[in-house]
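Before we proceed, please read the two lines closing this message. Let me know whether the structure tokens fit the sequence:

…
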Amino acid sequence: MIKKLCLIGFVLLLSACGAEDNAEPPADLVEFKSSLPVEELWSVSIGDGVQQQFLKLYPLMLKDSLVVADRSGRVSRVDMSTGKILWQTDLDTILSAGVGGNEGRLFVASRDGQLMALDGQGKLLWKQDISSEVLAPPALSGNTVLVRSVDGMITALDARTGKISWLYERNVPALSLRGNSPMIVSQNAVYIGLDNGRLLVLDVENGRSLLDVAIATPEGRSELERMVDLDGQAKLVDGVLYIASYQGRLVAIDIRRGQLLWSRKLSTYTGVELNASSVFSSDERDHIWAFDRSNGATLWKQEKLNARRITRPSVVGDALVVGDYEGYLHFMSVFDGHFVARVQADDSGFMVAPLVQNNRLYALTRDGTLFAYQVSAAE
């Protein structure tokens, strides 16, 4: 099996595993006058979290609850209003991917290559062995659940029974980032950012390739220099796909016409976020960028979180928020990037971007504590 490599020196460069001897030390926190009220509503421990493992266990946001998994196999459903744990299931296995699914059917995957289905009350419905470790949340489309494993295999299964419907295999490069981008399902197609910098679109029903296009092209002499990887979150809105790569570029593609709308050079492993007019991303140096959605023009850049190992940005009202390695949530204006608020959840830090619903922010720390904040209008 081809292994995804995580070279120690490279991971230090990316600030993924944390190190005291990083050549570029994290930026000190700057002082500013807070103008955005942020109130902690509740916090709850949902297990062991990921600790110091480089795992992005994405929570699943449902209508009134969040479903959260920890590395040790505990899956919890949490009421979003109160923080009350509605139920908790211990699967007694090491989980490596976040939660996928919907209100009535939930999916998680393990380090040893096993997909598990739960009902909406946390009861285990079935297990199915797949080819290898899974690092991206399973994606549900109708009665089909799709799983991407680190050996390049994409597996489609019947969500009701776990029976395998089809397989699609792609070679993976010898060197890539530790992780896989979340898949996007829309109108019976699944969009997958690959480790080699290509975008793959498959028909959910039969696995037929609908599109296979290079988003980033390898450049340089060494394997490290030539590494391109679509490892971050992409966004598909109004028929336009916004997707960005490590050591590559950010692009906007009209998927209905297969037309490239615009392209910008960018290196990111966290992905992109949108509001009505802008595209936001945090780059490999932990600088935050805002681009015009219509043409890709740079609107602003915030460099004062340099090397603080920040998450992908999330939009909450007129603010942009990222989490960092010390457990701080940094809020910036979406209009010009200046800081408007800062709170510290705990000191274990964040691996995944905060989730947002109705001006409420939900942030999961490395140690498995889930925080809820109310974000009010700026003063």
Remarks:
- The first helix runs from residue 8 to 14.
- The chain has one helix and 32 strands.
- The CA atoms of residues 185 and 191 lie 6 Å apart.
- Residues 1-22 have pLDDT under 50 and may be disordered.
